[in-house]
# Entry
Amino acid sequence: MDHLLFLIATGLARGAIFALFALSLVLIWRAARIINFAQGAMALVATYAAFAVTGMTGSYWAGLGAGILAGAAIGLGVERGLMRFTRDSHPLAGIIVAIGLVMVLQALLGIFFGQQHRPMHTPFSDSPLTVGGVPLLSPYDIFVLVVALAVMGGLALLFNRTSMGLQLRASAFSPEVSRVLGVRVSLMVTVGWMLSAAVAALAAMLLVPTELGLNPHSTDVLFVYAFTVAVVGGLDSPVGALLGGLVVGVAMTLVTGYLGATFAPIGVLVLLVVVLLVKPGGIFSMREARSA
Amino acid sequence: MNRIAPSLTGAPRTIVMGAVLTVVAIAATFGLDPYRNFQLATIVAYFCAVAGLTLLVGLTGQLSLGHAALMAVGGYAYALTASLATDMGLDGLPRFLLGMAGAIAASTLHGLLLGLAGARLHGPYLAGLTLGIAIALPAVTAQFSGVLGGDQGLRIDRDDVPAVLSRLIVVEQWQAWVAIMIAGVVVTGLAAVRRSSLGLRMRAVRDDETAARLSGVPAGRVKVVAFTLSSVAAGAGGAALCFVTQSVSPGAYTLAFSLLLVVAAVVGGLGSIGGAALGAALIVMLPWLVATLTDLVDMPAELEQRLSGNLGLLVFGALLIIVMLARPGGLAGLRRGRRTRRTSAEDPTPPSGPDAVAATSPTGATAADPAPASALREMPANDQPRTPQTVLQSPTERER
Amino acid sequence: MSQRTATGVSLDIAGLTVGYGGEPVLHGVGLTLRPGEVVAVLGANGAGKTTLLRTLAGLVRPTAGSIELGGADILTLRTEDRARRGLALVPDGQSVVAELTVDENLRLGALWRHRGAARERAIAEIYDLFEPLARRRSSAGHQLSGGERQMLAIGRALVAEPALLAVDEPSLGLAPLIVGDVMTALRDAAASRGLTVLLAEQNVTSALSIADRGVVLSLGTVVADAPADLLASDADLRHAYLGF
Ligand SMILES: Nc1ncnc2c1ncn2[C@@H]1O[C@H](COP(=O)(O)OP(=O)(O)OP(=O)(O)O)[C@@H](O)[C@H]1O
Ligand SMILES: [Mg+2]
# Structure
């Protein structure tokens, strides 16, 4: 029972990271109708930047800030430099170019930093606090949860309460009508990519310290999990990303805790298949949005 | 090629061409040393899988990022049935045929299941699902390590050169022969499908699924069949590779390898079988070429270690991006472009059907099929919401 | 309604040739609108009305010709910059952003023109003009009726106080009674703001009832350009080009 509680608590913290990353996929999906298969690799490059800055300054926070900025800059570069040109090309060009980008980025990281795992440190202790004799969340888990919720709240405000958010939503839903109304749609698409890549970078930076360390493949699995989360939640639905993230996070922690770590990827696959077959619009999505 | 069999058309013609090319490839093995024959066998095994993938993507528009896992299915099934046959006291041809039958059966089953799931999904969803499969493969082999041997995988006995040939060729050349014959059968089958009415229906589904449905094409069934055929081709490639290397393990069928197969299909030209052959050769030869080149340059051991593997990956990634953005027709598209220009200079009639196997646009339409191209010309160049069928594009179009 | 001076500007289109890759759809179309003039562009299906308006807005690029708004060449401007120069297009098909509410749709239209309190005032004015919309402020676009959607699309264009309003078949898909309402609203808005209006319509009678002048497009060329009352009463012209 205690073990179960512990697993659920850590699962929530882990799930918050999946949710954040899934949210970043939702952001790009809504801005550009692309599932960015390079999101993991882009976030990883930003994480290496954070690692370097923390190494130079000795400050976790400087690294975190630099990583987020690097993420946004990478989003800018990828959208303006590559993805913009996939729109008028082959229907699968967006995915295929993203895959090419993954290969290029991982190769470059491998060439410059090697394949070894570089440990990243947490700013707070990651040993669980005990509540009434039951080990539950660690201070770092609490930090992760707070940051994830704050970012999601901030994004909700941005999208629903500001002019920028209104333009971002309008551009995503009807680009042509928006342009006719004077909205700079292509700028909005770029902003969407930058926001999304920054959020993904943040998620990766929160995750990597809890894993083996930083390596050119650190985010491969994160991407697959987040993709599953986004599909479970519905790609059009930020709320779905949040709930889906928590569900997948807890489910995976339980599977790992009771059945062993090797089983987790199979569990994700089963979940993905079941959701895609039974409710392809996503569990939390109301609309039929799968025809993209 | 018109001169070889001028009077043949349709399926018989495809079969004759397949047979001729198979014999030519077998003859070519006499010009290669054992190591080169081993490389050729690998290329040919990859060729099966890439040909299956390129038809799937090019003809039906379904992108699979898990074809390496489907190759693994064929490889494991071959290894398991072949071992079973050994236990039953069989060897030689009976064991090989039994192994192949096992591989085909297993990959048909897997392809059918995945195809059923995939038929309901569009582009990115199927890509994500197959990506998940590629990632889950090591977990599956670990979970069932009793049967699948975990990380180590399975090993099988080597098939030696048959007695009648043993004075003539060495084992590497024999293995190349077997791989070539497997590929000959599989790819000829795919080429026949491509030119059949089924191939036509696949394209109809790719171009506009709703329209295809309305005109009576059972879109779901067409996609399932396409995925299954593609899976069988990948499985046969995996079986061939297992035959050549006498082993199968999850380490040989990673996500990275799945993505390499995509590189081969895209760089060769989606939908083109000739392009698939070029692509398969590329993914085998380029890393080797890069390694040879880096060997020539003197550099610190540390750097050399980092470059090995990564440099090839870098080149592949860059190629994928460049080809997709600049020349979605791939290498096959280049060939077609040249030929179109030449023929139009000498002879006003457009190059037509029969020998267009390798001469296809990325969407699989042959040069003699002007309809999709003209449909595109009428699409506005602004950023109206894009529907899949607005993106029909042939390489000539992109030269604007 | 706040007191306003005439805001309309002139529009000069000359030699406009537009195609979608194949044969041109418009062949050297020329058209001049004086400030504050309401001009109806009439023509059968496929005559090129939508193409003309979309080219005006910069959604389609012409192969030849010129477009001047208030004497300034706008051909090189992007769609969004033309909007910011005061050119408002109401696309065909009651094009509201279905996922946004009525209020958000109007806000979107007002965004670049007004800030703060001025924005709220401009939006309130539209609610005065189209009363049915005021009752549906927080309904999503896809919950509106066709007539309400058309009002919203027009209101959303007006809220930015454009100098030229181009409306593409506002009558499409609406009941005759509602068409009358929409046309009246359009005429009132144009009159009170001194707007220049380019109205593409197949519904000849109702378009000419609010227009000063009618221009008939046939197969991409201007075949008639005459005062609205003349056009409405000239039986030969009507027979030849408008089919009744
Ligand atoms: N996106 C497009 N691609 C290719 N051709 C087009 C496109 N849009 C319009 N056309 C062609 O241009 C011609 C003019 O079309 P347009 O839509 O401008 O006519 P319209 O006068 O608005 O007709 P309607 O009254 O039916 O709306 C038609 O022949 C049409 O087929
Ligand atoms: Mg029209």
User: Anything to note?
Assistant: Residues 1-5 of chain C have pLDDT under 50 and may be disordered. Residues 176-193 of chain C form the longest helix (18 residues). The radius of gyration of chain C is 17 Å.
